[in-house]
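Worked example
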Amino acid sequence: MRMLQLRLVLLFAVSVHLAVAVELITYDPLSTVCSPDSNYTTNSTYQQNLKILLRSLSSNISGFATATVGQGPDKVYGLALCRGDLSAAECQNCVAEAATKIQQSCSNSKASTIWRLKCELRYSNSNFMGTVSTNFFFLSNVNNATDPILFNQQMKVLLQHLSVAAAANSSSMFASGQIQYNEFQMIYGAVQCTGDLSSANCMNCLNEAVAFLPYCCVERQGAVVIGAACSIRYELYPFLRGSALGLQLSSPTPSSASRCKKTGAAVIAVAVAISLLVLCILILGLFLWRRKTKNPSPIPVKRDRDDDPELLDFSLASIRAATNDFSEANKIGEGGYGPVYKGIIDGKEIAVKRLSNQSGEGSIEFKNEVRLIAKLQHRNLVRLFGCCMESQEKILVYEYVPNNSLGSILFESDKRLPLDWATRLKIITGIARGLLYLHEDSRLKIIHRDLKPNNVLLDNEMNPKISDFGMAKICGMDETHGNTKRIAGTYGYMSPEYVIRGNYSLKSDVFSFGVLLLEIVSGKKNTSFKAADGAKDLLTYAWNLSKENRTLEMVDGALGESYNRKEALRCIHIGLLCVQEDMMNRPTMSSVVLMLGSSSVTLPAPHPPAFYTGSWSRQEATSMSYSDGQPEDQPLQPLLSTSSNAVIITELQAR
């Protein structure tokens, strides 16, 4: 009886939603934008050309069409796009009606766009083909999802899969599908790009549209986000024809009904568990109190940081005792910011990073790293236990990661371990997931800005953990980029827009990841690379091999024939996508994780990598010198130029 009542309630909710959806569909056109900056005169050559263009688009289109009419200042560029499930006749009717309405609404305007629910029509006196605009508008359902956390999770997974599928579908740039929401409902979605976009630009446009959702349509049962070059839509009902329902994704999440069935048992179990937990805490507290009174700990640890109550504030005495007074025998590494020691506190292994006074990381960077890592919890990020700021010391206490850094294992002959292909792929995927967490899934949106092999640690199962957040930047929820006059990072891993102009973004980390991926596959270091074909860096070498269909020559010779060729080719392809010079062409980390995890996703063709044909010339790169006697991993003093295109670098490594 209860199940029947639940089904009736859900049926009523769906019927209400459908009523709202019907109201949305009758609101047509959705939007019309008329440019106020440039107008044509009545009966002018431009108007005649425009009429010819509109007739051509509406009569010849079957899904997507472009046209140009006229010459010189009277030339008109036009584009029409229909939703992927329309027939040719329906498409032509929709565009013809749009052409009539746009002339009525935007009379004498030289550039206009009209959006209907099933088609889009755009014209202009300037060539807009192939460009991506991140200006969007939206319409959303007035009702909220009953389980917003689960709904948003499933909706995002669906749209990410659809975005990759649409970008790979060069014939229509359209994809649709559905995913399980709960036992009774599915989420239906569709995404589409205009056919003049490249696969990479389509992916970027759709990613921007998905990223727009939290600011307009969070928790809504349905929404449509529309831009000049792409659109996305999701609903709790099938708004497309059945034949257009492409991807079918299932949910790993337990259904609502199964959760309801287990509620009574869960309550009893929780009550029992809480009682046992309280009893255990009392016993443990008594045991620790008696132990402390008999044998006080020689390594006092206190928790008294007002700004970060979750952090442990270690005393300098406890750190000295744990590391045997920073003895050489306990030293496990040396980086640009100072030595790292292994220690033991209360039987737990720790790693102690002691920042040198000459490291260049001051109180601001130190507090930044402490504040950042304390709020981050992910299996592919190093865990911070606490810190110490005493007697002018700045010390960080991390979890101990036994296999040292990825850089030492890949590039240092005395520490190099044989990495089989499965392990390399696991490391690549783990780093990607860690970055995705930083960019999209953590409580903060974080740009790392210094991703390199020495900042990736490996645990005893060779799982990667991203570390060193001293250069990281926190972005607001509506931010994806920033600018700085103080460029900090490591030469060879910094993106060109960051090195040249100080522009950093999530795509800067994507570039660094791409370099790292190519290094892991090849076993070669980008910052000290030489090739017989004259390539002066690993990126150019990979690009040259791919152009000549010799991509597998990139794979580390230490692997011999013991690797999966398809996976290796795919990884190198993804690496080249990540290091493209134009940041707009680089994928997001969510796309990277999806591409790494699904061999069925078609990858777009990459453009040349940065520093291959880029604006930063080889002469500029080789003119940067190092201070005499300074180790490669040490941060440098700023190199100042008196030219108008001055570049300030505070951290470099030889290429």
Notes: The first strand starts at residue 31 and ends at 34.
